Amino acid sequence: MLFPKKVKYRKSHTMRRNPKRDMVASRGIEIAFGSHGLKATTHARLRSNQIESARKVISRTLGRGGKLWIRIFPDKPFTKKPPEVKLGKGKGDPVGYEVEVWPGRILFEVDGVADVLATKTLISAAKKLPLKARVVSRVAH
User: Has residue 16 been placed in a domain?
Assistant: First the structure.
């Protein structure tokens, strides 16, 4: 699973967000490496085990012929309190890492396989993630 070697702070703040304003990604919104990509259409926080699950599906389906790029990295720690603990007494302990994904962000890219197989692979990977996503392809110039 993906996680950073070292973080500056053990616990991170929860981001404040205005629900009335739709936030969209401004970075990582175009296909840069492969021929097909999986683009997020809704907001979500992806945990490292969810990214790993999608990666396994893609690499299993592509086989040795295709190449995969993961365009997101879970570098933000998230915390959780133990079960049956009353409210108060501070913030819980860090249990894993996540990445905040906004609509428009490219999550995975693949190359080296046929268009039909690439599309099928990315759709099956999207089913493993807690967000809506669509398959996009590079525009040929």
Answer: no
Structure pTM?
Answer: 0.89
Q: How many CA atoms lie within 13 A of 121 on its CB side?
A: 26
From the list 10, 15, 14, 1, the residue with the least C-alpha distance to 93 is 10
CATH of the domain at 56: 3.90.1170.10
Residues 55-81, mean pLDDT to the nearest whole number: 93
Q: Establish if 87 belongs to a structural domain.
A: no
- The tally of domains found in the chain comes to 1
**pLDDT above 90 coverage of the chain, percent:** 82
Q: What is the CA radius of gyration of the chain?
A: 17
Tokens of 75: 């570098």
Is residue 20 included in any domain, yes or no? Answer: no
Residue 67 within any structural domain of the chain: yes
Q: In terms of C-beta density within 10 A (0-12 exposed, 13-18 middle, 19 or more buried), how is residue 7 classed?
A: middle
Which residues span the domain enclosing 67? Answer: 36-81+92-137
User: Of the candidates 58, 72, 69, which has an alpha carbon nearest to the alpha carbon of residue 119?
Assistant: 58
Contacts of 52 (CB under 8 A, 6+ apart): 1, 2
